[in-house]
Amino acid sequence: MAKPVPVSPLAPKSYPELPVIEGVRFATAEAGIRYKGRTDVMLALMDKGTQAAGVFTRSKCPSAPVDWCRAKLKGGKARALLVNSGNANAFTGKTGAKSTKQTADIAAKATGAPLGEIFLASTGVIGEPLDAGKFDGVMDDLVKNADPSGLLEAARAIMTTDTFPKVATAVAQIDGVDVIINGMAKGAGMIAPDMATMLSYVFTDAPIAAQALQAMLSKSVQGSFNAITVDSDTSTSDTLMLFATGTAAKRGAPRIADAADRRLAGFKRALDTVLLDLAHQVVRDGEGCRKFVEIVVEGAASAAAAKRIALSIANSPLVKTAIAGEDANWGRVVMAVGKAGEKADRDLLAIWFGGFRVAHKGLRDPGYDEQQVSAYMRGDKIDLRVDIGLGKGRATVWTCDLTKEYVAINGDYRS
Amino acid sequence: MAKPVPVSPLAPKSYPELPVIEGVRFATAEAGIRYKGRTDVMLALMDKGTQAAGVFTRSKCPSAPVDWCRAKLKGGKARALLVNSGNANAFTGKTGAKSTKQTADIAAKATGAPLGEIFLASTGVIGEPLDAGKFDGVMDDLVKNADPSGLLEAARAIMTTDTFPKVATAVAQIDGVDVIINGMAKGAGMIAPDMATMLSYVFTDAPIAAQALQAMLSKSVQGSFNAITVDSDTSTSDTLMLFATGTAAKRGAPRIADAADRRLAGFKRALDTVLLDLAHQVVRDGEGCRKFVEIVVEGAASAAAAKRIALSIANSPLVKTAIAGEDANWGRVVMAVGKAGEKADRDLLAIWFGGFRVAHKGLRDPGYDEQQVSAYMRGDKIDLRVDIGLGKGRATVWTCDLTKEYVAINGDYRS
């Protein structure tokens, strides 16, 4: 087992106050799946009629719960969400699928929800069979104790090697009526040791139909969870779900079924804010991280090209180690631009660290003050901007630095 | 500057004896480009009529010497090769191109070779202008001192953060006549600090025309230099060239112009051997490495799919840190298979470390002995095999583990 690690130096200094969303209640329990002396199961109970949307890992070897959720999501409705930490139920083959079904049966029995409205996730060790019986012992208590104000505790129960629970909240107006969006996430890179998951659950009382939720979620994820990387390793369990209880309708919020409805403009902005906040928190809990890095690529041939170049920079071990070493090593940035496979012309490139342009038109910028840049690199938020100089394509991604602690967390856990 | 590092624990125990190739001579000098007290320039002089082939980085931001070599290679002939370490002349824009031209002029004047038959390479810091005048002071001595037995010293002069010079040799028969292949390489990942280059030069006395050399080189590189990775970062300067003096014709070797000529079968095998040997040495000098890792993927939908999956595994920080930690962490291997984007079915996968099958049909292999596998993982050569179970696609790639020393070499150089 990994030794306990201190809270990430990039963790938020405080948690936001989370307003209650009517129609969703949370409970946690210690099921003893792997950890001792901490909660490892989270149940979210949702009122009848709650609409659901989700996006999942692109891995060709997804976990059993991901398979389950994808299938059930076709109904667009949710009554219960059950998540455990300590075991990912990934690469567990038919046994894993069976265990997932058994878990859902237990949840259905205790909650009265139909199987098609139960969603599951597991995060932790890959390849170990998950004993569904563990849920049996805690399920009745979970249902009994479910509480509308339990979101932060729920976020804590699904942590694995996260060093802090991740929550975010926002209020939007739909046709003049306030609606709430609350979210939680877990993830710290691909999560050590031998763990692999990013999970995020977002709840709202807005009365929006599943199809519209799905369209908005699929779009919002592009600029948030699909724009972060800690170590380029894609989890087998990545899951992001959005649940809408619709209870704001009681306060006069209109029921909306079409994502293109103009009255959703504010909701979309708030959803973007919550997802980006949660995604940033995942990066800020990146294993061994000391610096939060924002990478903006502009002037690329297209937005897609800009994103590929930005991710090439963000995933480059040499760029990430240089940032850990507090060096504005733009030579490595050039290398990462070059290897991205997108159109680029050395003689048009310009590179900035913070406000300092360090390279320009294929040359070191003669005007930059190395001392000023060095001082900037000692900060814990690094902005890196690259102008490709070719077109109008633009993208922003976020990552963290690569430190010896990352290697220690992911390599030393046997000692 | 990086502190001097000890020789890689994976370095070969001895250097092979390198037979002399008639028609090529080597010299080295201390030009003081960046390093003090060591050679940093290498000249190879080749007899008139020497045929040349080359492959170069796929980076969209290649160095000035790469641009130069690509242009000159069209002639298919070589008389001189001049390589410096300490400065990569990369991302130096028009200044870099001018410096390259100036260097070639100096070499042409001293050697009498036409500009179109002079090849150049630079390896070291990116973004610093390269002072071509430095070559002026040493060029006449280089020409005067050139010696047929100087290959190992030449290999040493082009090292940057390599911890040992890399050479390899083989003898092949063409129509019953012995021909020699000698090669050198440099590279240790993307090379710290802020350096970036893999260079390799191979020489033969076989009388083979440029076009045939090019075809054989382009093919042979696929299974050797294009099948290794240290940190997934592609150099702006990668250069591999093959020169054939043709002097074996004096001993009766036939002149061959067609790569499909059956008499080249032995030569091709020998070329493969030399390139693979050199490529392996680059991995064995990978920054901070402790383990040499061979990854075989079989049963993929195609050979290309197998190679993409193999490289996804080889480039995964989580797989590499687990190997550094001596853990047979097949869960992370599954993750890396899943993220490769190629067809894969969890329930068909099988994974071996050495002779030990650790996972099978979507489950931990119940038969494997954890103690035996742990003992195996403590060795310095790790064989990892993955059967995708879908088709006949097969590929082999090589990499090294990811240790804290890698991060130190690439991040701590400022302290």
Structural class given helices, strands, pairing of chain A?
alpha+beta
Helix content of chain A: 25-40%
- Report low-confidence residues of chain A grouped into runs of 5 or more: 191-196
Number of domains of chain A: 2
Overview of the structural elements:
The structure is a homodimer of 415-residue chains. By secondary structure, chain A is of the alpha+beta class. Chain A has helices at 64-72, 93-111, 133-145, 151-157, 210-220, 265-284, 303-315, 317-324, 330-339, 370-377, 404-411, and strands spanning 24-29, 41-46, 51-56, 80-87, 118-125, 166-174, 177-186, 199-204, 239-244, 292-300, 350-353, 356-360, 363-364, 381-387, 393-400. Chain A contains eleven helices and 15 strands. A six-stranded mixed β-sheet of chain A has the order 13-12-11-14-10-15. Chain A has a five-stranded mixed β-sheet with strand order 3-9-8-7-6, sandwiched between helices. Residues 191-196 of chain A have low confidence and may be disordered. At the A-B interface, helix 2, helix 8, helix 9, strand 13 and helix 11 of A face helix 2, helix 8, helix 9, strand 13 and helix 11 of B.
Task: Considering the chains and any ligands shown, give keywords for the structure.
homodimer, 415 residues, alpha+beta, L-amino peptidase D-ALA esterase/amidase, Ubiquitin-like (UB roll), five-stranded mixed sheet, 24% strand, globular
